Structures are given as C-alpha cells and as structure tokens.
Amino acid sequence: MSPTAPRTGPGTSRAPYGSAEVDPRQATEPILALNNVEVIYDEVILVLRGLSMSVAEGRIVALLGSNGAGKSTTLKAISGLLPTEDGEVSDGSITYQGRDITHTDAATIVRDGISQVMEGRRVFEHLSVHENLLAGGYTRSHGEHADDLDRIYTYFPRLADRRSQTAGYLSGGEQQMLAIGRALMAHPRLMTLDEPSLGLAPLLVEEIFSIIGRLNDELGTTILLVEQNARLALDIADHAYVMESGRIVLDGPAAELAANPDVQEFYLGLTEEGARRSYRDVKHYKRRKRWL
Ligand SMILES: Nc1ncnc2c1ncn2[C@@H]1O[C@H](COP(=O)(O)OP(=O)(O)OP(=O)(O)O)[C@@H](O)[C@H]1O
Ligand SMILES: [Mg+2]
Q: Residue 7 domain-assigned?
C-alpha cells in the first residue's frame, strides 16, 4: 500500500484523460494515497482521525460510510477545498502520483489531474450547458476545446440536445451529467465523485453509473466514488473502503465486501438470511458490527 516512487511531476507527461493503456505493472500502484490524515474544521472540530486509503491507477474505488462519517471531507481534503470551509489537514499526508499534495491549492490540483464532482450537482445555473462545459476547460488551451466538447457530447447525448439551454432548467439527472462533463473538460487522471446518485430516479442513476463505468474503461480515468447507495457502488467498483467516524474500518475487493455480513446488514439492508430489513429494524438491532 506504499505510494509510488516519485516519477516525473504530474502534468509533464500527461496523456489526455489519463491513459487508456494502463501498464499492467502499474495498475496496482496507487495513484493516490492518504496516510493517517487528520482534518480539523474551525481549528477545533476533528473530523478525519487518521484516515489511510489508497487508489490504484485505472481502478474504480468506492468509499462508503453513514451520514457524517467524513466522506465529503475526505474528498475535499484530496481536492484542496478544505480552506474554503475553514478546514485543514492537521496531520498525515496525501500523495498523488508519488508527490505530496497535502497543502497544494485547489487550482493546482485540478491542473495536476484531479477533478472533483461535488455533492449536489453544482452547475452555473445562469449559464448554458455549453458555457458550463467551457468553464470546466479553463485549465486547457482554447484549441483543445472543440474535441473535448465533442467527446463529452458523445458520452452525454442528452447534453448535446440541450447545449444552448440554461443549466438551471435542466433536470436533476441532466445537471449531474453536466457536472461530470464539466469535470471531464479538465482531462482528469483521477475523478472523484460525491454521491452522484443522490435524489435521482433509478433509471437515471443507472445511466449515470454506466457512463462512469465507460469513462473508466474507455478513457482510463481512475475513479474515487463516494456513495450512499452501497449496492450500486459495490457493483461498479473494483475495491471499496468503509469509513466510520473519520477512519477506515474495513476495506477489500468490492465483491468481497458485498459478501461481508456486516456490509450486507448495515449498508445493503440485508439480514444474514438474505431478506430485506427496514432501516428501523436495523436501527433497533443492537448486535455490534464485527469490525468494531
Ligand atoms: N465546514 C464544516 N465545518 C464544521 N464541521 C463540518 C464542516 N463540514 C463538515 N463538518 C462536520 O464533519 C463531519 C463529517 O462531515 P462530512 O460532510 O464529511 O460527512 P459525510 O460522510 O460526507 O456525510 P453525508 O453522508 O451526510 O454527506 C460531520 O460531523 C459534519 O458536521
Ligand atoms: Mg457528504
């Protein structure tokens, strides 16, 4: 789980959107590693308490956890967004492509190849779909935009049909697609997504997850996915982490986690017999989780 040895700096030899041909020897080396990361907000509120995890290049990694566990905080720490919320990494380190990015500013991190799709599908509501995408490409030169836009419209035909429409009038699912499209404009090697399924109808969620799978498969984009919908996340992911109260409590291949009785009970809503339980039943069921 040790981070990769420093190579040439990120950005110097960056292929568009990461490389679809991932060298099998490198496929298991982490592109991103968090080592005992602590995060505090407002100088006193300790939220991440020594969180360690790593993401192998070319993979899809899911980060699961209940409300308030610190999932969004983890993504903000990676993207350099904590200072905007009076938060900071107070201990530990974050390395990307073998290089320390713990205190790197958000704009540099995007330039280096990490794009975050924030929770709540943030789009510029008063701008058109097209203008929103162009805004996402600010790190690239103008000459590169046309190809990028074409590519994004191929992945999201719904956006192509609505390219001149004001983003604020798009449906929730279309706004989520736009938020992902905008992140893609920066040619990320690593894309982090914070609850892309939140509040969307099942069919749209399916569509968005299938596109996330294709981005990983066809463009070689490494994905770090935060999801409340553990079933979907474990379906699409190669590896998964479960966090509680600011720490990782369990990790493993996604298929292994999906078969873990505690994960089934607390995240997939299944009892050991395989029957569905209601949330209320789970809440009143006092057996301790085995990982605690
Ligand atoms: N800007 C902030 N200032 C102070 N405390 C914060 C701030 N942001 C988050 N927190 C606290 O940090 C803890 C973790 O929040 P975070 O948003 O990272 O959790 P989460 O796992 O993403 O939860 P959810 O599933 O509800 O999105 C919570 O207790 C929250 O109240
Ligand atoms: Mg969150």
A: no
- Domain shared by 223 and 279, yes or no: no
Domain that residue 124 falls in: 30-256
Residue-wise pLDDT for 83-114, tens only, equals 999 999 999 999 999 999 999 999 999 999 99
Tally of structural domains, the chain: 2
pLDDT, tens only, 29-41? 799 999 999 999 9
The residue whose C-alpha atom lies closest to atom 30 belonging to ligand 1 is 68
Print the SS3 string covering the chain. CCCCCCCCCCCCCCCCCCCCCCCCCCCCCEEEEEEEEEEEECCCEEEEEEEEEEEECCCEEEEEECCCCCHHHHHHHHHCCHHHHCEEEEEEEEEECCEECCCCCHHHHHHHCEEEECCCCCCCCCCEHHHHHHHHCCCCCHHHHHHHHHHHHHHCHHHHHCCCCEHHHCCHHHHHHHHHHHHHCCCCCEEEEECCCCCCCHHHHHHHHHHHHHHHHHHCCEEEEECCCHHHHHHHCCEEEEEECCEEEEEEEHHHHHCCHHHHHHCCCECCCCCECCHHHHHHCCCCCCCC
Residue 188 pLDDT greater than 90, yes or no: yes
CATH number of the domain enclosing 184: 3.40.50.300
Pocket test for ligand 1, best of 44, 47, 64 (most atoms within 8 A of CB): 47
Q: Which atom of ligand 1 is nearest to the CA of 195?
A: 27
Q: Tell me, using a 6 A CB cutoff, whether residue 70 lines ligand 1.
A: yes
